[in-house]
Amino acid sequence: MIMKYGMDDELGQIVYMDRDKGERVPFKPFSEQTAQLIDSKIKFMVETAYQKALTILKANKDLMEKLSSILFEKEYLSKEEFELIMNASGDEVDAIVETMRAAYRKELEAIEKK
């Protein structure tokens, strides 16, 4: 984002990518000091995003474990099932997961009987 869109207050609205050579090829009309600043900004953005993701995952560890337990058995969730789990309160999640697990087992039994 910093190099492609120039989205940084300190570096300004300068785009550091050569559009003629493709988005992945930077051109370098800037000093080594600016290159170091770009690197530090990118590193900061990545580290900030990583820490935010880690915080979210830790705060929702129980929910993630319940989701993984049903996914381990069922292997997929529909959009509706996922939203149902995500919008439920803590106590409701256990019941929803168990209901999904039971329904999935019945589906498997019906398939095996055919």
Strand and helix map with partners:
Layout: H1 2-5, H2 32-59, H3 61-74, H4 79-87, H5 90-113
The best one-word shape is elongated
Alpha-beta classification: mainly alpha
Strand content: under 5%
Tell me how many strands there are: 0
The helix/strand order is HHHHH
Percentage of residues assigned to helices = 55-70%
Give the number of helices: 5
Overall mean pLDDT stands at 84
- Please give the radius of gyration in angstroms: 24 Å
Total domains: 2
| Biggest sheet features | none
> What's the N-to-C terminus distance?
54 Å
Poorly predicted runs of 5 or more residues: none
Describe the protein in words.
The chain is mainly alpha-helical and 114 residues long. It folds into two domains: 2-57, no CATH class; 60-113, no CATH class. Helices cover 69% and strands 0% of the residues. It contains five helices and no strands. Helix 3 runs parallel beside helix 5 (90-113) and helix 4 (79-87) packs antiparallel against helix 5. The model has no long low-confidence stretch (mean pLDDT 84).
